[in-house]
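so my prof wants the structure for this chain in the tokens format not the other one, which i didnt know existed until like an hour ago. anyway here's the sequence
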Amino acid sequence: MSRPMIIVLLTVMLLSGCTRGAELVSPPQQAVVDFQSSPAALRVLSSFDKPVYLAEEFEKKYPGISVEWTVVKTLQNLLDSLASEPPFDLIAFDYMWSNEMSGYDIFEDLNGPPYHIGQYKEWFPGLNWDRLSTMQDKKVIIVPRDLPAELTFYRADILAEHGFPSDPEQLGEWMENPDNWLTMAKKLKKSDVAIVSRAIDPFVMASKGQGLFTENMTVSLTMEPFISLLHVSKQIQDLGLDSKATIWDEKGRESLRNGKLAMFTLGEWGMEMLRAWSPHNVHLWKTTRLPFGLYGIHGGYAYAIPTFSNHKSLAWEWIKYTTEMDTKYRESLATHSWYDKLPDTRLTPVDGRGYEIILRSLDLLLSSEKSPEEMAVELKSKVEVELYREIQYMKNAQNKGRPPEGAPPFLFDNEGGPGRPPLGADESSARK
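here's what i got, hopefully its the right format
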């Protein structure tokens, strides 16, 4: 496939199914090479380094096969590189890009032959695979490699000293009630200990898994759980319960070391980072699920097979083989026991931008005299106004399959890059 053809496809096919509705030309179907009877190279375009051990084992299982691995560091680089010749056979990328990737109709539908992904859903028991599908016709195009949880890290000794649950399961259940969490924040604040860094943090937690839009693309900020989260954020602001220092600055890390910050949220891979930040008391920290009944994902990687791959069957063999090899690792993750608890509302290609609008608006709103309900209405209006064309585009694609005349390529920002940086970009770079 020529580079101009790919560029046109990536610019125009912004929503799943738009190729049919807008009567655009789909990528030509390439013949699938029988890799078992002829030498072949599996060309992988990835956002992470080559897993050498897995590649070596795969090549042993399939003699004559070589795994060629190209690494890119941004979503923009990945999309640009899809124009390469010969085409890449497999895309391996940061799971946080999945929402935006679901807006492109250039990946194989893994529901159908020869993949039949339904046979392999035990890889992630209880997971609602709609979150891995295209917006319009629910084609499953993404297979996670792993789904690390967003967790609450907490000082068990400090909570116990103040009379609060310190057992992970008991604490997780207790914090589902926002009133319980606020009671804990108020009591610990009297001892000059904080359990939250910023008043906006409840919405940062929600951004890891809670969609902003209903199935028909209605902004859901005036519904639960967002109203409850606004009540929590308002009390954090009014009562000064936040530390105003985060784990991403030195003041916040010093608070970890001296016991002034007793709780924060991060992907479950964060224990290694905590060990570097506060080595002398890392043994006092435990983890549990998020408060307020929230569940989310932070980090991880995923696969997709481009429709123009020359070796689709070989790419699928890699996905199956490496996913099976990673079984014990996946089962060790906190998410393994609660895939079914992830919100039913899926994250759309514009949820990231919606949360950015909320987070940059919240500080000023929380300092005002407005009630949480009034703030919810104003935030809903801001998202609707700033993302009006994008929302209409997606509604139209879902209902009729045809974008409105002159609709912009909304997945691209003013600088021409796809979408926006993910929330907590400094976090993802620190993780890597």
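also thought this was worth mentioning. Residues 351-366 form the longest helix (16 residues).
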